[in-house]
Amino acid sequence: MLARVRSASLVGVEAVPVGVEVDVSPGLPCFDIVGLPGAAVRESRDRVRAAVRNAGLPFPLQRVTVNLAPAGLKKEGALFDLPIALALLAAAGVIPAAALEGRLVAGELSLDGAVRPVRGIVAVALLARAEGAALVLPEANLEEGEVVEGLTLEPVATLSGAVELVRGRREASGQRRARPGPGARNGGEEADLAEVAGQAAGKRALEIAAAGGHSLLLIGPPGAGKTMLARRLPSLLPPLDREEALTVTRIHSVAGMLPPGTGLLTARPFRAPHHSISLAGLLGGGAGACPGELSLAHGGVLFLDEFTEFPPHVREALRQPLEEGKLVLCRAAVRVTLPARALLVLACNPCPCGYAGDDRVACGCRPDEVARYRRRFSGPLLDRIDLAVRLNRLSAAELMEAGKGEGSALVRDRVERARARQASRLAGEEGRTNACLRPEELRRWVTLAPATRRLLERAVDHYRLSARGYYRTLRVARTIADLAGEEGVRPEHAAEALEYRVERVMGRW
Ligand SMILES: Nc1ncnc2c1ncn2[C@@H]1O[C@H](COP(=O)(O)OP(=O)(O)O)[C@@H](O)[C@H]1O
Ligand SMILES: [Mg+2]
Ligand SMILES: [Zn+2]
């Protein structure tokens, strides 16, 4: 007998439909899975067999063939265990095959018959809703499923529970309505800018970066507060709207980064991968094109500490995705697009020992060591930086001032107003900020009075700014004017933007 049930496979951050068909026919007992199963799916056989038996259900002693369709798609993950088990029981006549209609099933089984959480439930729930199916899912994934509104969720904790459910013996207790709207900002205690003492220039650069979506370089000795500042950038960004929150949650769900019981993520992500990370870890990979750090930072901040230690090919690989806000992976014959719009923050020491330019500790590096180190500053990524700031370590007396400055909420208010001005200019282009203004847009929206123009011309000569560096200065100046609530870019806005030019900050010590 043949039975089938709907399930799904993850490709990037999408769930695509997969039909699970099980045929039970007379013959020597065997259990095969066909239809391009990945390693985890092949192991499904052992889990399904043990789970069915340990749930006290009969396992057919006949030829069992599982087919996963479409055959051309490689199936990854353990989420096929539960649909395979249910279709198998239906094909063996233990449960009515008709009960599987109208349902989409996902869940991993443990050997004792418990249903374990799987990754990617947000994407799977979106697919179930699009197909008009109810979703049978692991109980531990319920909050995740509830992020998607307007579908019926049927959580199960055990295989026996799932059998009871489809036999109709159990009230579908999980037919809870999904909760509307984002909840409280999760992610725990968000670090606040008020905890940072002094560092006025660093804080100002952070505010401009948040307001215009500009990439930022923090350069200074160890202990200057580079990491501390970078960690506080998410708290200066406007809250995620519902659509963004859903995308962020979906990405983290697919990557298996949502702890059980987590619903909609409403805090902006902060990702700080170590420089030893692999290219796949950063960009994503595997047969299912699972998102990497760059996509996990989508909607938030990607912080590359000690960025000079990242291998050149890794820096090079980040460049285009960061520019485009998305990244394309080629997997076999399929091109998978992953979201990757993140604010880039780089940090590094000014020299190998870290103390070049420090006013209290002498730099112990030889000039050739410093020169070799500085060469790593050029090239990919650094040429994409809009704002650079040099930070110095604070004295003990200055550190005592921590907690007395402006808090994140106040700064975020100004950032939101500056973003509203940008949005009215870039009407209809979701998520774009000044940082991605094209040259023709700059000509239209950055009108320069003669004095401002003269100032910029002098700076281009003096710092030998490239055309790209010049455009970056204009974008930053536009954001500074937006923070000031002004339509025109005034000389002081341009002058401040020039303060943050990489060429200038790098040439300063
Ligand atoms: N401006 C500051 N205000 C308050 N504490 C600071 C400041 N700068 C540094 N610190 C303290 O020093 C520690 C190290 O700072 P950190 O941000 O890790 O420095 P860096 O990343 O530049 O090496 C922080 O955890 C914090 O306790
Ligand atoms: Mg640090
Ligand atoms: Zn040094």
Could you explain how this protein is built, in words?
The protein contains 20 helices and 18 strands. By secondary structure, it is of the alpha/beta class. It has 2 domains: 2-167, Ribosomal Protein S5, domain 2 (2-Layer Sandwich); 198-436, 3-Layer(aba) Sandwich (Rossmann fold). The strands form 6 sheets. It has a 5-stranded parallel β-sheet. Strands 1-2-4-3 form a 4-stranded mixed β-sheet. A 3-stranded parallel β-sheet has the order 5-8-9, with helices on both faces. Strand 8, helix 5 (142-145) and strand 9 (153-156) form a beta-alpha-beta unit. Helix 7 (200-212) runs parallel beside helix 15 (408-425), helix 17 runs parallel beside helix 19 and helix 18 packs across helix 19 (491-499). Adenosine-5'-diphosphate is lined by residues 196-199, 220, 222-228, 394, 399, 402.
Bound molecules: adenosine-5'-diphosphate, magnesium ion, zinc ion
Judged by helices, strands and strand pairing, the structural class is: alpha/beta
Radius of gyration: 27 Å
Count the beta strands.
Answer: 18
**Total DSSP helices:** 20
Taken from the alpha-carbon principal axes, the silhouette is elongated
The biggest sheet amounts to: 5 strands, parallel
Strand order of the largest sheet: 11-14-17-10-18
Distance between the termini: 79 Å
Helix percent reads 25-40%
| Percent in strands | 15-25%
Any idea what the CATH superfamily of the largest domain is called? P-loop containing nucleotide triphosphate hydrolases
Task: Provide mean pLDDT, rounded.
Answer: 90
For this structure, the CATH topology of the largest domain is Rossmann fold
Unreliable stretches = 173-188
- How many separate domains make up the residues? 2
Architecture of the largest domain, according to CATH? 3-Layer(aba) Sandwich
Q: Which CATH first-tier class of the largest domain would you pick?
A: Alpha Beta
